[in-house]
Every structure is written in structure tokens, then in C-alpha cells.
Please model this.
Amino acid sequence: MAAPAHPPTPLLELRAVSKSFEAVRALREVSLTLYPGEVHALAGENGAGKSTLVRIIGGEHRPDSGQLLLSGAPAGFSSPREAQHHGVAVIHQEPTQFPDLSVAENVFMGRQPLRSGRRVDRREMNKRSSELFAQLGVPIDPLRPTRGLSIADQQIIEIAKALSADARIIVMDEPTAALSSLEADRLFGVARKLAEGGAALLFISHRLDEMYTLCDRVTVLRDGAVVAAGEVMADIDQDALVRRMVGRPVDQLFPQREATTGDEILVVEGLTRTGVFNDISFSVRRGEIVGLAGLVGSGRSEVARAVFGIDPHDGGSVRVRGVELPAGNPRAAIDSGVALVPEDRREQGLILELSIERNASLARLKAVSGKGIVSRSAERSLAREWADRLGLKSGALSDPVATLSGGNQQKVVLGKWLATEPSVLIVDEPTRGIDIGAKVEVHTLLSDLAAQGMAILLISSELPEVLGMADRVLVMHEGRITADLSKNEASEEAVMYAATGSAA
Amino acid sequence: MNRLRALFSGREMGIVGALIVVVVVTTTVNPSFLSAQGIHDLFLNASIIALLAIGQTVLVITRNIDLSVGSVMGLTAFLSGQLFINDHGTPVILVLLAGIALGAVCGAFNGALVAVAKVPALVVTLGTLYVFRGLDYGWATATGVQQVNADQMSPSFLAFGSGSLLGVPNLTILAVVVLAGTAYALHNWRSGRELYAIGSNPQAARLAGIPAGRRVFTAFVLSGSLAGLAGVLHASYFGTINASVGNGRELAVIAAVVVGGVAIFGGSGSVLGAALGALLLTTITSALPILGVPAFWQRAVDGAALLLAISLDRAVMLRLATKLREQRSASRA
Model:
């Protein structure tokens, strides 16, 4: 469906909206129009400002400048509640459930059907939840607690929430990231039905084919600014769309390199953690980059955590250079040369309030201290060395890490672990939320490290990154490895096929 | 039947079980423990702490805590005494309302600091624990009234505190009414359900459009009001008060709440559980001397009950989590 020739009043219009977080300009004069009956794609790399835009529409953030119009009338949301009252529903990328409460309560929280005496009508609530889930084609027991549900099921609950609220403006922030293709198709059916009913949908996805299947128009953000404004999807081909998003041809994003691999350094055999992952076996050789792909919630990060010893495992073994690591002991893993750069650098990788040099030396305190007392000068020279090698852009090394950009923070985490001179490096989402330039630098760094003989396990949700970087790709689905693909075999289709557990 | 089962979920039944064990063991040692008078005393003693536990539960469900309840209680107990010194014939209902009102003001002060100024509840109420107690002592010193005795209070007030209706102590009736009302609201009202949501995932609660600040503020006012009521009841029951009434009560209350199965990090638990927890701890306290356990072991036994309850919760939680995960992967396979 193309945009109508004489567009009706847009349901939602953003005019020149800007938003900054301290020094970072997240959005620069962004404009966006959503018409009733359309599915509008919002495209852009991680860190382009999509999430900020979503938060502004959802009432979580207020714009610094610019205007927001609802059906032509100026409006502004000061809270998510207000946005909801105006018919806005945001389906968040990371589902936000109440684990202690029942599924039905999660769907209707704050909007529960009432019976006499202003009492919550549980029977009605459960019945309507069941109906919503039937409509979505996913039978979830409305009475069970939400704790323990898969990400995909939680995503379905989010969608049920939006449906139950009769939302007119529905924002879906990567709703398919954790869904199988069957579940995604079902979701598209629902999305189209909503649009036909006069709602406006803003759809965010990293899968281009989904945008072409579902969306009518597309707005592209890059570095917080609009680089394509509401263009008709059919008029813009895939290559052109990618160029807009990335600002350069894609093949330059990944360094070319010839892998020369040696002995197996990391060998994982039959690793199992009941209910989380099962019978995981793989090995990484010297100089090799092994990609670990899979949907969110497939157990990738959990495997990495168990290999490193942060989480315990119930069965199987992890060997580094032939020596078995004790289960659940990160210290032993570090001592035998394993380093883990965790998924969430702000929560797990850094202590934001501490200085760059303090953070950089954390994993090597023994090396920078004498007689148990940390030497500031040794700490500083260690930090200085790695800051130079990684091309860290910062003020003083004594500045708190919180003042750095995402890309530079990631370099500090990498530097912290590289300082331990590991032989096995596990990186979990190394480029999430950092800009393109920094991304290229991280990729180059990883490929240099592999060339120097490091064994690297790369976990990433970004398929192009895995395909571009890895010599071999392991794919996980529901806690199992479902494919081990060589560089030649690994295509976007093959990986997605294995990641969604589609029957062969 | 289903309703009854839902009312007494696993956790409440566990406490009732423990209660029966304690009562049976104690009664075999001394049969008078289970006499009509014995039961009467048991409920009477548990009533005040149960009232405090109900208010505390509402807060703990939202991932907050109120450490100032003992001090609020002391303040309103002293207020009752002062009212009678001013006018020996002050009507009982007026004293009750004044106590509740003063408690509500204290709760509102806590709530404003937590909900508006966004200071963590633990810090705020630790502060007001000392501030309210200080006001209490200051008031006593300023008026020169160190202690108020029974003969200074009105007979109808004292009769209310020690009286019963059809054999049930007045204080227990009051506690049961408050319990039923709070349980009803938590279970049936939107705002009640929202308290659970706030404690279960504060960020998600905000995204769901729940006015978290207002709800938490209300919970503090409720907790304060009940502490205020408890102070007045303490005065009418014991007939003697000074400025140190309720000293250290907050920890006994929190112990009762935790033993009663309320998750200390919010999101789950019931006021019935907390009230039963209060009854269990009170019963243990009364049973110890009969069983020949020296009084100084009392606190240690309370602490042990608390640790046992938390360990059991943790074990059950882990088992449940594994079960839910397995159930889900089985249904997907």
C-alpha cells in the first residue's frame, strides 16, 4: 500500500525534535509523520537514535526542543501514563514484565476490567487474556506467573498489552528479535490487521526483509539525524537503504584477513546447565574467530558466562590448553588465560564512577601492586599503554568512565581484559550501541588480535557482524547448538534457519 | 474449596503448621497453655504486632521498608497519655483518631521523602526512627511528664484496651478488621495490584503508567497510621506509658513480615501471611518460658525462625524457577 495521494491528518507528527544526554546529541531535529493505516519502518544502526525517539513517543523522555502533534494538535507527554491515555503503546525491545504476577495481570496492569465495588474482575481479565492469546495464536496460560517465560512469550505479552489498550499509535521496537519465523509471521498478520483498522504502526527491525514485507514507508536515522524521511518502501532498494543507514558500503565494515589457525586452545565438551543450555560442545583454535549466533534468549551469553565460570554448570567440561577449569571459578579462568568482555558494559564491564585508569587495572591488580598495595603510578602506566594501543579518545585518564562515549567505554573494557594478556578472549556483543567509526575500530582490533594468535569467541546479535568477522559460526537455539557452519557455509539464511529452529 | 485453598496458599499453611507444632509441644508440657485464658492472651499479645506487620507488608510489597514504626508508636502512645492529662474525660474515639492522624502525618513525612525526594526508604526511615524518638523524649522533657499511669487515663479507655466482645479481645477484633480490609484492597483493587507491580519491577511499573510515587506515598501513610493506632492501643492495653514505648519494635515487625512469607525485595506476599507470622513469633515467645528456655534465648529463637523462613523461601524459589523453565521448554519441544 502506497501512501495516499491526499494524506489524511497524521495520527502522530514529530517536528524538528532534538534531545541531548549531557554531551551526546541523541536526536537532531528529527521529524516523523505517522498516518492512520500505515506501517512505518524506522531504520538505522545501533546508536542512531531510534531508541531515544521511541522513548520520546512513549512519554519516557521529553524532547529538548521541537514539537509533537497528535491528530494535528500540539501535545506533549510528561509520562508513559499520559502517552498511554493518548492511545500510544510501545512494545519494548526488552520486555518489561512483573515476574511475580500472573500473565493476565501483566497484560492488564493499570487497566484491569472492573466489576461492582471497583473490584478487579479476574474472571473477565483471564478470559480476555485467553482471547488475546488465541488471536495472536500463542496459547499462554493467563494464570501462570510470568517468571520463567521465554523472551518470545514475554514479547507476546507485550503485544497483548498493546492490543488490550486499543492503542492507535503502536511502536514496535525490534519485536521480532527473539521470535521464530513462524511467530514473526503471525505478528505481521496482527500488525497488518491493526493498520487496516486505522492504527499507525512504527516498526523497528534489524531485518531488512521484514521491513520490505511489512512496511509501507521508511524513515532512516543516522547519528541522530533523519537521512531518509518517510520514503515509500517500494521506491528504495535494499542496497540504497543500507547505504543510508551505514553511510558507507557495508563491505568496508569488516577487515579482510586470512585466518591462520593453530592448535585448539579452548575446548568445551558437553557443557550443560539444566533448563538453560544443554550438551554444548565446541572448540576454538589459536588465531581463530568463532562466532556464536542465535536469537536473544537462546543461551549464548549464558554459555559464555559458564565457560568463564561466573555461572556454575551441571555437567560437561571446559579445557584451556588441555587443562580442565574448575566449574564456577572465574579466578581460575583468568589465571589460565581466559578473558570475558561482557554483554552489558555499563552493568557488568565497568564501574562507571571510577576513573579510566582504575577500571583498566581492575583485572590486573596483582601486577600493579607491591605488597598488597596498589601503586598509582604502575596503574597509570598500564592504563596509558592500553589507551594508546586502542586509540582511546578521552580527556584525562583520571576522568570517570561515565564521561566517555559508548565506543570509548567499550575500549576501556577491552583494554582491561587485554591487559591480562589472555590466550582466549570471549566478547559478548562487543559493538552494541556504539557508533560506526568505533565499530570499525573494534572489528579491526579483534582481527589483529586473532592474527597475533589469540583464540576469540565472538557473540553477537548482529548477523552481518558474525558473518563478516567469524571464521566459523556456531548457532544456538533454545539452549542447544543447532549448526556449526564454516565461513563458506555461513549465510544469513543458513544462520537464521538454525537460530529459529526451523525443521530441516 | 478452591477459594479457601487460594486464601491459604502454601506459605500460610506452612506457618499454621509451625504454629500447631509449637502449641502442641508447649501444651503437653503445660496444659494451661491452651486454656481459654491462654488463647485469649496469645491473640491479645499478637494483635498490636500484627497491626504493625500489616502496614509493613504493604510497604515491603512495593520494595520499600519502614523502620520508624516503633518510634511512631511511641509518639502516639505518649500522645494518648498527654490527651488524658489535659482532659481526663477525653472520649476514646477521639484518642484513637488523634493517634491515627499523628501516625499518618509521620507516614506522610516518610512517604514524601521517599516518593518525592527519591531517597531510599531504608535511609529515610532509619533517620526518622531517631527523629521521631527524639521528638518523643523532647516532648516528655518539655512537659515534665516522664510517665503516664493507669489512674491518669480514663476508665473507659482502659476498659477498651483490655475488654473483649464475645470472648474475643477488642484489640484482636480491630486487628482482624484491619487485616480483612487490607487483604481485600490488595487483592481486589487496581491500586492494590499496582503495589505488587511496583515491587515486582519498578521500571516496568513506570512504563505501565502506574503512578508509583503516589502509591508508595499512600503505603507509607497507611503504615504510619497503623503504627499510630498501635501506639494508642498499647497505651490502652498496658495502662502505663513512657517515652520509650515501641523501642526496637520495628525489627520484630520485619521479622514477622519475613517469616510470614513476604518477599523482602517486593512483589509477593500477603498480609495474612504477615499476621500469621506475627502470631507465630508471639506464640514462640510465650512458649519459651513454659518450655524452660531462659528468657535471654528469646531473641535468638526469633532470629533462628527468621533465618529458617528465608532459607526455606530461597529453596522453594529455586525449585519453582527450575520447574517453570522445564515446563516451558517441554511445551516447546
About this structure: The interface with chain B takes residues 58, 60, 79-85, 90, 92, 96-101, 105, 109-110, 112, 114, 117-120, 144-145, 147-150, 153, 274-276, 478-479 of chain A (CB under 8 Å).
